[in-house]
Amino acid sequence: MSRIRQIFLRRFRGIAQLDWAPRPGVNAILGAGDAGKSTVLDAIALAFSATRRDVFYDTDFHQLNADAGFEIRITLGDLPPELHDVERYGDYLRGWRAADATLEDEPAADREDVLTLRLVVGADLEGHWSLYSDRTQDQEGRDLSLPHRALIAPVVLDQSPATHLRWARQSILQRLAEPQFAVRTLVARAARGLREQAGDAGADAEVAAVVDQVRARARELGIRPAQEAQVLLDAFGIPGWNASLALHDDAGVPLRRLGTGSSRLLVAGLFHSRLAPTGIALVDEAEFGLEPHRIARFLRLLGAGVEGGPQVFLTTHSPVVVRELRAHELAIAHHNAAIGVHHITNVADAETGLDTQGLVRRNAEAFLSTAVIVGEGPTEVGLIRGLDNFWTDHRQNPLVLEGIAVTDGGGIPAAAARAAAFARLGYRTLLLMDDDRPLTPAERMPAEMAGVRIISWGGGQATEDALFFQLGWADILSLLAIAEQTWGEARMNENLRSYSNGQFDLATCRAQDLPAHRAILARTAKGQDWFKRIDFGERVGHEIVGPGWERAGPSVQAIVNAIWQWTRGG
């Protein structure tokens, strides 16, 4: 059955422009809030619409500019025989080449035959659905027949899955019915039976009195059809009658009363058992209503991890979903606010230079952001998180509201490679690192060429060197207090004596601000990993570096200022 080869959007809601060639299988669209993920799913559903009952509003136009209108084009390949009818649709057949994701208006031997569905809406808010090709623009537009549109219509698994547990237009149960007219026949029979049973109401004295009045007035007015009126059930007056038949449990309770998660799993199971080999599915917020252990099952039922399975478009804000999917099933949405252009990068097509699956599993949260800070190790990660807490205390937006994720780079050179990979995937990326083991030119160049902003302490300094040599003395004493609360005075004394050949202990170093004391404290802290934990680094950033920034030396001030500027878009 058909697969979407290309999505073309112009001026639709928050998207001024988008051109995307999705994969045949699962396409999990990732990105921060307002990246246009759900808008893409809505555009697909609208372009496939077979009902023509869709209502449009000014908010459907980009920046409310109704005069410019909006346009959606969805190009379909892998056409079923019904859509490959040359007599009916030959003028609209076009050519698609998957190798370079290019579309030509004329079909060709080396290209797949495709059709493009088009929806155009103007200031009059009227939708115009048609097939599209450049060579037919001077002709009266032709559209797919309604049966053919129904044939390719996607299954929409939204946050109201109960709609699929009744026989209704485009529900899974309706699409599973073979032949479909049998369901309509059954409904008609049920309606007739209900109407006949309701006729007994006419025997009620109060009802009969009302009917007699109606009959009498009808005779007076000469309204023949009402002269012999009787009481029967008006099928259209039954609450919920439009729901048609619905599934119930053995106690008679409608299955639409199931919990959201159970309903979604059941609907996904129905999709998997019958429609998946030939269908397209749209799933907004894949994690909605599902516990982590049920998410994996839900994704498998949709075809995740299966080559040649259904084409599924889903959105998510859950790192659990990201970890459960394969890297090539992910697509990352980015928005260039300056020009209003959206771009979706298929992870499978990006040359990250790394094991992308491993990158996804270790950094799932980062894939849901718009920008990434890679800390060389846990100290740097904690320091950034601590500074974030300090800035938030002073009424600045936390990094998460700026769309920024902080992740551990795993040391040098791994951190540089990970930062470069994120940058190649379209994320604005910063790398914070020590300088006691500088990057080699071969390690640094790929990151810089990918656009990574690299910040280090400089001068061959590790983070511990920068802190102990650059912070004010009162802040050094606070730094030692944090270490002592964790490691204890006895161990710190042992460490200091070992690294100073017995010359210094904690009390000696605390007694006076001397270069020698700072030097041995920095050397010992680095060698004994006093702060090599994220929670330690977080306390240092929040309680010491943030409040003591103005008292620090120029190197620390410059680094903290550079980090701050970058997090605010500079």
Provide structural commentary.
The longest helix has 18 residues, at 181-198. The mean pLDDT is 86. Strands 1, 2, 4, 5, 6, 7 and 8 form a seven-stranded antiparallel sheet that branches. Strands 9-10-11-3-12-13 form a six-stranded mixed sheet, sandwiched between helices. It starts with a strand and ends with a helix. The chain has 570 residues and is of the alpha/beta class. It has 20 helices and 17 strands. The chain has helices at residues 37-48, 86-89, 146-152, 172-176, 181-198, 205-221, 260-275, 292-301, 319-324, 356-362, 378-393, 414-424, 441-450, 463-470, 473-487, 489-499, 506-511, 515-527, 534-545, 554-567, and strands at residues 3-12, 15-20, 26-30, 70-77, 94-97, 102-104, 112-121, 127-132, 155-157, 280-283, 311-315, 330-336, 341-346, 371-375, 404-408, 428-433, 453-456. α12 (414-424) packs parallel to α13 (441-450). The relative contact order is 0.09. β16, α13 and β17 form a beta-alpha-beta unit. The protein folds into three domains: 3-157, Rossmann fold (3-Layer(aba) Sandwich); 175-245, no CATH class; 367-567, no CATH class. InterPro entries: ATPase_AAA_core, Bact_Antivir_Def_Nuclease, P-loop_NTPase. GO terms for molecular function: ATP binding; ATP hydrolysis activity. This is AAA family ATPase. It holds the Pfam family AAA_21. It comes from Luteimonas marina.
